[in-house]
Amino acid sequence: MLLSEKAYQHIDRELAKFPTEQKRSAIMAALTIAQEEKGWLSNELIEDVANYLGLPPIMVQEVATFYDMYHLQPVGKYTISVCTNLPCALRNGVKSGQYLQDKLGIGYGETTEDGLFTLEECECMGSCGDSPVMLVNNHFMCVRMEPERIDTMLDTLKNGESA
């Protein structure tokens, strides 16, 4: 067992939401719980989740590799996903992403040397009217991310506060 007892209890609560024969319905929730605790999903962790759910590891691996919200490599404490889809791009999304890259000194798919930030380029987050849009750790949506707001977000995260 690679997760804490608390994490497995949380997975049990997710499993209880579905009929016994539909354990696969809890895969996404279980992977999210595992990633929140460990930061990313190693092959061993994916296999552990599969075994805990009583499912073939390939079934869990397929979900983990299909959705880009799951990290299959180590990432920084904060992952910042920048929407560069057309509506955001037309409203300075690409420019804001470039500002963020310049500010942190890394490109998309990279992590800062201090392990604090990882940048990701992502597809539409459904908040086109609020673009440019960024998502922190797959949980906190940040809207209208012009340079001043990006600076504030980075300072807030560096101080260990929520975005």
Comma- or semicolon-separated keywords:
about 10% strand; Glutaredoxin; single chain; 4 strands; alpha+beta; about 160 residues; elongated; 4-stranded mixed β-sheet; Arc Repressor Mutant, subunit A
What's the SSE blueprint?
Elements (H helix, E strand, L loop, with lengths): L4 H11 L11 H12 L4 H11 L3 H10 L11 E6 L2 H5 L2 H12 L12 E6 L11 E3 L3 E3 L4 H12 L5
Parallel strand pairs: 1-2
Antiparallel strand pairs: 1-3, 3-4
Strand tally: 4
- SSE pattern: HHHHEHHEEEH
- Please tell me the CATH architecture of the largest domain by its name: 3-Layer(aba) Sandwich
Based on CA atoms alone, the radius of gyration comes out at: 17 Å
The CATH H-level superfamily of the largest domain is Glutaredoxin
